[in-house]
Amino acid sequence: MNLGKFLTRVSLAFVTTIATHAPLQARQLGPEVVLKAVYLGLRQVDTTRANPKVRWNVPNGVSSPCGRIGGSLYCTRNNTIYITQQHIQMAYKYGDAALAYILAHEYAHAAQTIGGFRPNNITAIELQADCLAGFYMGAMPNVTFDRQDIEQIAEIAYQVGDYEFNNRQHHGTPEQRAKAVLLGFQASQKNGISACRVR
Prior knowledge:
This protein has helices spanning 3-19, 31-45, 85-91, 96-114, 122-139, 147-159, 174-189; strands at residues 53-58, 63-64, 67-68, 73-75, 80-84. By secondary structure, the protein is mainly α. The strands form two sheets. A three-stranded mixed β-sheet has the order 1-5-4. A two-stranded antiparallel ribbon has the order 2-3. The two termini are 26 Å apart.
């Protein structure tokens, strides 16, 4: 499915509504600026008080208490989010808002852990983390995402989706991932975090 058509069908009216309240971003912000601002915003809106540490610009293959780092992740053993160099580079192919999504998604895993949400279904965990990431980003008092930012976020969520239904690590299809993060953004403006509840 074409992401442009998907965005138009699912949430163009919502994206337009959000965009009217935000200035157009003229330039990309560097990773440190993005991560610091987004982390501050996440801590302000997170009611679980997960408060994970963040290590960024981490090379793939580095050891952590959760094993070797193969990509950005939240490690439950030391309450730390690891953002890899590879994922920072990938994010900036879409824009700085895509990096905000990566941090918000991993932060959502910390909130899930604190909240005791650990079902055996990896797909449910990942899609809820996408929804929570969208909710958190939409609710942040210190960072505003314009239409272009939201499109970047939906695009990276779409691109990291997969169709490996028989893989235990299946995180959700491209459509599911983009829809989940957009649902979270919408919930931040309308019906609240309960929209991210797994049914």
